[in-house]
Specification:
The chain is α/β, with parallel strands linked by helices and 256 residues long. 38% of the residues lie in helices and 15% in strands. The protein has a single domain, classed as Glycerol-3-phosphate (1)-acyltransferase. Helix 2 packs across helix 3, helix 2 packs across helix 4 and helix 5 packs parallel to helix 6.
Length: 256
């Protein structure tokens, strides 16, 4: 694959013990909930000290107000590393997550306490997630979505617009909230999709890059037709892919 020329970008991940301690003290705590906050405190050292982080573009995440964050998904470690990244830039992410996770006792406490949103796919409650997500965004929350819903099916790890669900597009069109794209890479080496335990040593390099909000200005206010939703989804996935190209240092293959 052709190498992408990566523009100069400041690495705003904390490096060194003192920088990591300072960031730990500065991350937002009010609104986490006890169990979500506890999970963050337990897993935070894993991200800080067991991975080699590279963070770019964090200034694109608004420090307040409603925002939708859209990320690719390649590992079970993604919610941990991406949560740390978003927290490190001043926001508490609320996730759209499979309703089945609420059946796991400890996980249920973390998700409920953190005001995350269950997605009941294929049931009469399927519309509840959309309604609750709209409410969260309208209340000024940072809602984080993996548009593909699960790990990308592409063997090379590139996002697929065909796999992407329309939920985040509909949320963006309904609320007008900015959609900030994240492309990250390396977590599949920390915890492979079929792996049971994380690989802690040697420390694996993880890269997270965030771009400016996706330009949807010409689509906002239009009726949510199939074509409008599809185009919104395409733009969001394209923006994620662009950031992933920069994170990986290579060009994604042309869509067939």
């Amino acid at each position: 694959m052709a190498v992408v020329l990566i523009p100069d970008a400041v690495d705003d991940a904390p490096h060194g013990l003192w920088a990591k301690i300072v960031l730990t003290c500065r991350t937002p705590r009010r609104g986490r909930g006890f169990w979500y906050g506890l999970a963050i405190d337990v897993l935070w050292p894993f991200v800080m000290f067991c991975t080699r982080m590279r963070w770019h573009g964090g200034e694109n995440i608004p420090r307040s107000g409603p925002v939708l964050v859209a990320s690719n998904h390649v590992s079970f470690a993604d919610p941990v590393t991406v949560t740390a990244y978003v927290l490190g830039h001043g926001r508490i992410p609320r996730y759209l997550a499979k309703a089945g996770l609420w059946k796991i006792p400890v996980v249920r406490s973390v998700l409920s306490g953190g005001k995350h949103i269950p997605v009941h796919r294929g049931t009469s409650k399927a519309t509840d997630a959309y309604r609750d997500a709209v409410t969260a965004v309208e209340n000024g929350e940072c809602v984080l979505v993996f548009p593909e819903g699960t790990f990308t099916a592409d063997p090379a790890g590139w996002p697929s617009v065909k796999q992407a669900k329309s939920g985040i597009a509909r949320l963006a069109l309904a609320t007008g909230a900015p959609v900030v794209p994240i492309g990250h890479w390396g977590t599949q080496n920390v915890l492979p999709p079929k792996g049971r335990f994380p690989k802690l040593f040697p420390r694996q390099r993880t890269v997270i890059r965030t771009g400016p909000p996706v330009d949807l200005s010409d689509l906002l206010g239009q009726e949510q037709t199939r074509e409008v939703v599809a185009e919104t989804t395409r733009r969001i996935v394209a923006a994620i892919t662009e950031q992933l190209e920069l994170a990986r240092g290579e060009k994604a293959p042309e869509a067939g």
